[in-house]
Design goal:
five-stranded antiparallel sheet, alpha+beta, 13 strands, six-stranded antiparallel sheet
């Protein structure tokens, strides 16, 4: 399998991206400066973490698979009117993206009950929610990214009420588009988390990544987990699950 053949989704062969010094290294990615102050290179690593980095490991081809899957998804979302930081896939592990100021909030979108929500509320995993649930988490590794509400976010200065309304509206559009895409791939989009940021001109855009690292994805027929829960729960066949998602997305997008 050739991963990520769609090198530059938006036909722009003039893109240049000389990678310079590393600006930041996170749990799953590295960020590098370029000669353009408004653009950075993101490099995907094979490192895997879970439970606020209490569990650590690596698995084969994780970085290139997440890069390829995010490329497909960001291209699909952009084609459907979602503003994103994505510019181009440079190689197996690297993307060129717009430099953004990340809003220090994660939005977790829950279409089904799973993971921490099931544990926190004592609800059986796998129940479809009659409403879309939006959880808001404050991005602070030292605090374990605590669950907060809108008023906390405003108190902390993370976002205004107007910005939160814009964030939820954009997230709702993303959720609807992703549900449709994964449905075509015979996959249930159980839940996922996103990060949003602002570009130099103040525009709010989708940032970070969307991949099996950031989504719970279950086969519609068997309910087999095809995401990072295979790492979290020691289920094995992690790389195989990510490859399966990539292949299914390619087929769904080709229809």
């Amino acid at each position: 399998m050739e991963i990520g053949e769609r090198r530059i989704p938006f036909k722009n062969e003039s893109i240049m991206s000389e990678k310079k010094e590393m600006l930041y290294e996170g749990k799953a990615k590295q960020v590098f400066a370029t000669e353009n102050p408004d653009e950075v290179v993101v490099r995907y690593k094979d490192d895997a973490t879970a439970f606020n980095a209490q569990k650590r490991g690596q698995f084969d081809r994780k970085g290139e698979l997440n890069n390829a899957i995010s490329t497909l998804i960001f291209g699909y979302l952009a084609d459907n009117g979602i503003p994103t930081h994505f510019i181009a896939k440079l190689d197996d592990r690297e993307q060129l993206v717009k430099k953004v100021d990340i809003i220090p909030l994660e939005i977790v979108v829950r279409n089904y009950v799973a993971g921490s929500m099931a544990q926190r509320l004592g609800v059986e995993e796998g129940i479809k929610s009659p409403v879309t649930i939006f959880d808001l988490c404050f991005k602070r590794d030292d605090l374990g990214d605590p669950l907060i509400n809108d008023h906390h976010a405003v108190f902390l200065g993370a976002a205004s009420y107007a910005e939160l309304a814009e964030m939820y509206a954009l997230t709702d559009k993303i959720n609807k588009l992703l549900i449709d895409l994964f449905d075509k791939a015979n996959v249930i989009l159980v839940d996922f988390k996103i990060e949003l940021g602002k570009t130099a001109d103040g525009k709010m855009v989708l940032a970070d990544e969307i991949s099996p690292d950031t989504c719970r994805l279950w086969d519609k027929d068997t309910k087999k987990k095809l995401d990072k829960d295979r790492f979290r729960r020691d289920l094995g066949e992690i790389t195989e699950a990510y490859v399966e998602i990539f292949n299914r997305l390619q087929k769904a997008l080709a229809k």
